[in-house]
Design brief:
Helix content is 55%, strand content 7%. The protein is α+β, with helices and mostly antiparallel strands. It is found in: Endoplasmic reticulum membrane.
């Protein structure tokens, strides 16, 4: 029994050494094929964990490259709440969370990062929970104390992204062919785009108005749809509705009072200079004319406009002495338009001299 227990402890030490060093132990009894299979197992484990929705992650910039990263404490809590995720590791499923993370680091599936900005900004009580800019940490060892880890492998592209990449050139071509669409299609596209634009502007206005009222009345910074204007955000994060927790200091009452007075003055100024009914009618007529020009334009109208310019060319040809039927006139018989006026002036001068 003692010999078997000692052999079991020795085998566990060898397996942990393989995981931590990322190389094959020469004294290990595991053949090379199984060692390669273990690498594939860790790769599958990393892909499964990355695709899991319960592991909270964000996107950041690491050395001018966008990467997806998570926090060390979130990884620990994820494996504690989902122990079945370790089943894919087979023989290494009994490893501790720290050993699994170190194995992923040694196989270059993860890289430990650190925040670039390590000092508090003015008006903030603590550092950002999810920094937008990262840098590589010198020691590539797992830690759950304010440590960040970025995935180094490319995520598998889903089917909808492949279809979307094929759809973009088709959409570009459809936009270029807009002038030749039927009138009903033009109306549908125009009102759809106008509706989407109005929805976006209304959302931004209501969002800013709610923020201003809550900030003036309660002194709290609450932004609904907090990531709607973010440059680095996924589609799911972009349309997140609930606001983030306010971590900044409460503003002074003097600043809130000042901006309240400014808001009231701006509202009164806009109301005083609001356009009257006649101005709104003129603006509506002008916009209607612009929209009608866009909707009614077609290649036929463009060609008809070119045909309307041809009579001017025919008139110029007739002035040169050649008509459209091929007949010619004597240049001496052509009387300039101002000839009658000049002749009348000459006769008046002669009559005036005779009277003298």
């Amino acid at each position: 029994m003692k010999k078997s227990g000692a052999a079991e402890k020795k085998r566990v030490r060898r397996s942990s050494a393989v995981v931590q060093n990322g190389t094959r132990d020469p004294n290990s009894d595991t053949p090379p094929r199984k060692q390669a299979a273990k690498k594939d197992v860790f790769q599958l484990f990393a892909e499964k964990v990355r695709d899991h929705k319960d592991l909270e992650s964000r996107w950041a910039v690491l050395q001018e490259t966008r990467v997806e990263y998570f926090r060390g404490k979130d990884f620990v809590s994820f494996l504690r709440n989902h122990p079945e995720a370790k089943d894919i590791l087979e023989l290494d499923s009994n490893l501790e969370t720290e050993d699994i993370a170190n194995a992923l680091l040694s196989k270059n599936l993860l890289v430990r990062c650190d925040r670039v900005v390590k000092t508090l900004r003015p008006g903030k009580k603590k550092l950002s929970t999810w920094p937008a800019h990262l840098e590589i940490f010198p020691e590539q060892v797992f830690s759950d104390n304010d440590a960040f880890f970025a995935w180094t492998f490319e995520k598998g592209r889903p089917l909808w992204q492949t279809l979307l990449s094929f759809f973009w050139p088709v959409l570009t071509l459809a936009i270029c062919l807009f002038p030749v669409y039927p009138h009903r299609c033009k109306l549908l596209i125009l009102y759809s785009c106008a509706g989407v634009l109005l929805l976006i502007l209304s959302l931004l206005f209501v969002r800013a108005a709610i923020f201003g009222m809550i900030w003036i009345l309660l002194g709290k910074r609450i932004w609904f749809f907090p990531n709607i204007l973010a440059e680095e955000a996924t589609l799911r994060e972009l349309f997140r509705f609930w606001p983030k927790k306010d971590e900044e200091e409460k503003p002074k009452w003097t600043a809130r009072l000042f901006y309240a007075v400014v808001a009231v003055l701006v509202i009164l100024l806009l109301r005083h200079h609001a356009p009257d009914e006649a101005a709104r009618a003129r603006y509506q007529k002008r916009m209607s004319n612009i929209i009608d020009d866009v909707l009614e334009w077609s290649p036929r109208l463009a060609l008809s406009g070119m045909m309307e310019k041809q009579p001017d060319v025919a008139n110029a040809t007739e002035a040169n002495g050649t008509f459209s039927d091929g007949s010619k006139t004597n240049p001496d018989e052509i009387v300039p338009p101002d000839a009658d006026a000049e002749t009348g002036n000459v006769h008046e001068n002669d009559q005036h001299q005779d009277n003298i």
